[in-house]
C-alpha cells in the first residue's frame, strides 16, 4: 500500500520566481516576513473523498509496517511477543532481551513507542472521521461515506483495544487536537473496552460482508474484535468483583464469535487449496501460508483480514512491502552448528539472523508426548529435518540429529547458546521457493500477504469465553475443531480444560505461532498469568532471577505521566517507584 500523498508541496521554481518579483521592492524586514497564500487546517486540508480514502490507506500502511516490521525495530519485536513465554532472543543478541527486569522500567522506550504509536493511529482515524463530514467533501453515495467512516472508527477502536489490553484504562480521545493539551484523564479498563465495543457495534453493519479488494476491512473483522473486546471486558469485570456483568460480557463474546464462525462467510480450510495444492509434499495448514493463498479473494475462507504485500510495488517504490521473516525470525545454524550446517539457502531456512527466537516451550514442549501427531508439527509446517551440508561432517547428506545440534559441545554454556541459535523453522517464516532471486533478492524476505485475523483465533476466543462461562465441554469442542483440522491423534475433553487456561494458551501457541500478539493475550488474561509463564518458559535465566514482582499491565510511560502536568496519571500496579 502506498503512503498517503502529501497534500501540498512547494516547488523550488515557484519560490524562486516569487523571490525575483520582490527583490529590490521591499525592505529587509518585509522581505523576510513570510506571507503564505493560505494556511492548511483540519477544515480545508481535504477537498475530495478520494483524499480521505488516502488517509485510510495511510492507516492500513502503518498497521502493515507495525505488524511486518520491515525496518526491524526492536520494540516491535516486543510488541509481537519477544519477552513472553513464547519468544526470547539468541545468545548473539542477549543485550536486546526483554526479560531482564533489571533493565525494564516505565522509562523503557518500548512502552513509550507502543503507547504513542497507537495514539498516532487514533489521531489519524480522528482526522478522517472529522473530515468525512466537511461540507466540501462530495461522496458518490451514502454507502461510500458510511464505509469510509466505518473503517476509520474500526481503526480507532482497534487501537484502543490494544491500549486497553496492554496498558489498562487510558484517556479516550475522539476529537482532533489542535492545541497542546496537558489534562488527559485515564478511564477505567472496563470503560476503555466499553468504548471499543460501542464503536464496533456502531459500524458493524456498515462494513461489507466481503470485498473485491484484498486487505480492506469486512464485517467479520468487527465481529471478531467485538468477541475479543467483550472477553477482555468480562475478565476485568470478574477481577473487579462484578460476576453478573462478567457473565453477560462472556455471553456477548460467544455471540459475536458465533456470527463469524457460523455466519456462512468464513470457514476453516480443511482440504488442499491454492497455488501449490497439487504438490505432494504439502498439507492444508501449509497451504495457508503460501504466496497467493492468504486472502479471502484467493479462495481462503479462513482469512478475515490480511495485510497486503506486493512484490512489484516493493521493486518500484515501496521498499517496506515485504515480510522480512526469514531474516528476523530465522535460525543461525551457521553459528550454532557450523560443523554440520552452514549457509543462507533454503535448506537452512534462508538468511536468518535471529532477532527473535521461539523458546523451548514454543518449539518442543507443546509437542511433547501425545502432541507428536499434529499437522502443525509436521516437517513441512514446522521443519525439524535439516540435512548436513558441510562436507567434513559425519552427517553430510544425512539428517543432523537434534541432540547433536543442541548438545554438540562439552561446554554447557556453548550448548545453551547453540540451542538459542538453532531451532525448527516454521513455514510461516520461510519457504522453499523465494520470490525475487533473479532480481538480486536474497533469502531474507517473503512476498506474500499475512494475516491480521484468521478464523482459528476467533474459535480460540470463543473457546476461552465458553470456559469462563463454565462450559468446559463447549471449550473442548471448539479446541477440537482445530485439532481435527490438524489431524491430531488426540482430541480433548472437558476434563482436559484446566482452570489456569494452560490448555487454551498452549493451543494458541500451536495454532498462532508467529501470528498472535502474545503480550496482548497474556496481559488480557489478568492476574499473574503473564509473569508466571515468563518465569516458567523464558529461554534465559535472567527472567526468573529479576522478575521478582508481579504485574498484569505494562506501565504507563513516565514521559506520558510527566507531560500530562495538569492531571495526575496513576501508574499501573507493580511499576510504581521502579
TrEMBL record:
Q: Which residues form the SusD-like N-terminal domain?
A: 67-231
User: Taking the first listed entry, what is the main subcellular location of this protein, grouped into a coarse class?
Assistant: membrane
Reading the lineage from the top rank, the first entry is Bacteria
Q: Where in the cell is it found?
A: Cell outer membrane
Which Pfam families does the annotation name?
SusD-like_3, SusD_RagB
Q: Does Membrane count among this protein's keywords? A: yes
Q: Which UniProt keywords apply?
A: Cell outer membrane, Membrane, Signal
Residue span(s) of domain RagB/SusD: 275-575
Q: Which PROSITE patterns match?
A: PROKAR_LIPOPROTEIN
Give the UniProt family note.
Belongs to the SusD family.
Task: Give the protein's recorded name.
Answer: Starch-binding associating with outer membrane
Q: Which organism is it from?
A: Parapedobacter defluvii
Amino acid at each position: 500500500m502506498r503512503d498517503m500523498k502529501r497534500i501540498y508541496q512547494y516547488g523550488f521554481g515557484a519560490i524562486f520566481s516569487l523571490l525575483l518579483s520582490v527583490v529590490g521592492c521591499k525592505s529587509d524586514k518585509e522581505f523576510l516576513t513570510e506571507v503564505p497564500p493560505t494556511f492548511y487546517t483540519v477544515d480545508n486540508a481535504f477537498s475530495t473523498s478520494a483524499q480521505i480514502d488516502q488517509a485510510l490507506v495511510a492507516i492500513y500502511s502503518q498497521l502493515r509496517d507495525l505488524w511486518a516490521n520491515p525496518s526491524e525495530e526492536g520494540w516491535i519485536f516486543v510488541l509481537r511477543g519477544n519477552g513472553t513465554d513464547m519468544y526470547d532472543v539468541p545468545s548473539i543478541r542477549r543485550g536486546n532481551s526483554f526479560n531482564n527486569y533489571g533493565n525494564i522500567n516505565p522509562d523503557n522506550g518500548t512502552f513509550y513507542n507502543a503507547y504513542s504509536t497507537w495514539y498516532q493511529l487514533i489521531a489519524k482515524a480522528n482526522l478522517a472521521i472529522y473530515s468525512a463530514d466537511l461540507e466540501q467533501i462530495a461522496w458518490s453515495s451514502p454507502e461510500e461515506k458510511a464505509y469510509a467512516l466505518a473503517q476509520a472508527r474500526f481503526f480507532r477502536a482497534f487501537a484502543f483495544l490494544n491500549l486497553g489490553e496492554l496498558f489498562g484504562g487510558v484517556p479516550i480521545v475522539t476529537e482532533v487536537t489542535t492545541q497542546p493539551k496537558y489534562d488527559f484523564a485515564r478511564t477505567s479498563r472496563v470503560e476503555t473496552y466499553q468504548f471499543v465495543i460501542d464503536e464496533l457495534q456502531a459500524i458493524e453493519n456498515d462494513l461489507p460482508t466481503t470485498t473485491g479488494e484484498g486487505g480492506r476491512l469486512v464485517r467479520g473483522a468487527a465481529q471478531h474484535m467485538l468477541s475479543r473486546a467483550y472477553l477482555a471486558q468480562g475478565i476485568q469485570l470478574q477481577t473487579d468483583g462484578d460476576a453478573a456483568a462478567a457473565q453477560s460480557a462472556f455471553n456477548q463474546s460467544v455471540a459475536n464469535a458465533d456470527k463469524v464462525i457460523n455466519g456462512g462467510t468464513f470457514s476453516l480450510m480443511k482440504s488442499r487449496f491454492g497455488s501449490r495444492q497439487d504438490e505432494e509434499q504439502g498439507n492444508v495448514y501449509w497451504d495457508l501460508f503460501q504466496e497467493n493463498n492468504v486472502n479471502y479473494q484467493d479462495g481462503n475462507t479462513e482469512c478475515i483480514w490480511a495485510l497486503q504485500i506486493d512484490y512489484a510495488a516493493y521493486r518500484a517504490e515501496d521498499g517496506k512491502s515485504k515480510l522480512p521473516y526469514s531474516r528476523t525470525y530465522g535460525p543461525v545454524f551457521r553459528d550454532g552448528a557450523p560443523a554440520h550446517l552452514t549457509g543462507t539457502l533454503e535448506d537452512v531456512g534462508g538468511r536468518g539472523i535471529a532477532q527473535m527466537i521461539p523458546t523451548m516451550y514454543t518449539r518442543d514442549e507443546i509437542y511433547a508426548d501425545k502432541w507428536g501427531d499434529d499437522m502443525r508439527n509436521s516437517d513441512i509446517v514446522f521443519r525439524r529435518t535439516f540435512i548436513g551440508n558441510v562436507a567434513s561432517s559425519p552427517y553430510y547428506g544425512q539428517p543432523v540429529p537434534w541432540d547433536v545440534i543442541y548438545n554438540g559441545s562439552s561446554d554447557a554454556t556453548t550448548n545453551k547458546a547453540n540451542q538459542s541459535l538453532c531451532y525448527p523453522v516454521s513455514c510461516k517464516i520461510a519457504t522453499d521457493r523465494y520470490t525475487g532471486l533473479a532480481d538480486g533478492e536474497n533469502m531474507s524476505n517473503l512476498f506474500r500477504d499475512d494475516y491480521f485475523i484468521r478464523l482459528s483465533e476467533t474459535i480460540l476466543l470463543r473457546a476461552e469465553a465458553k470456559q469462563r462461562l463454565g462450559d468446559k465441554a463447549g471449550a473442548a469442542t471448539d479446541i477440537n475443531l482445530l485439532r481435527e483440522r490438524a489431524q491430531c491423534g488426540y482430541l480433548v475433553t472437558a476434563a482436559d480444560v484446566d482452570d489456569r487456561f494452560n490448555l487454551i494458551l498452549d493451543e494458541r501457541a500451536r495454532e498462532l505461532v508467529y501470528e498472535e500478539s502474545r503480550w496482548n493475550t497474556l496481559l488480557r488474561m489478568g492476574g499473574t498469568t503473564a509473569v508466571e509463564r515468563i518465569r516458567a518458559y523464558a529461554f534465559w535465566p535472567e527472567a526468573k532471577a529479576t522478575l521478582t514482582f508481579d504485574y498484569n499491565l505494562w506501565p504507563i510511560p513516565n514521559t506520558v505521566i510527566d507531560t500530562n502536568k495538569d492531571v495526575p496519571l496513576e501508574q499501573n500496579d507493580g511499576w510504581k517507584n521502579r
